[in-house]
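Contributing new records

If you add data, match the layout below exactly. Sequence lines come first and carry their own label; structure lines follow with theirs. Keep one chain per record. Anything else will be rejected by the validation script.
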Amino acid sequence: MKVYTIKEVSEMLKVHDRTVRRYIRSGELQAINLGSDSQPNWRIREDDLEEFLEKKKVGKRGGSE
């Protein structure tokens, strides 16, 4: 199982790390906290990142529309 840090995900998505944290707080992106409530240390599983991106996808593929 591949896991990523917030920094790695933000670099992949080309967004600020605060944006990734916002996705986690809102529940849009699932993450695992390896730290504490006062000092979270988030990790994002590759499968959860793929699911997040799939939900964000817009439009249809291959249709005649």
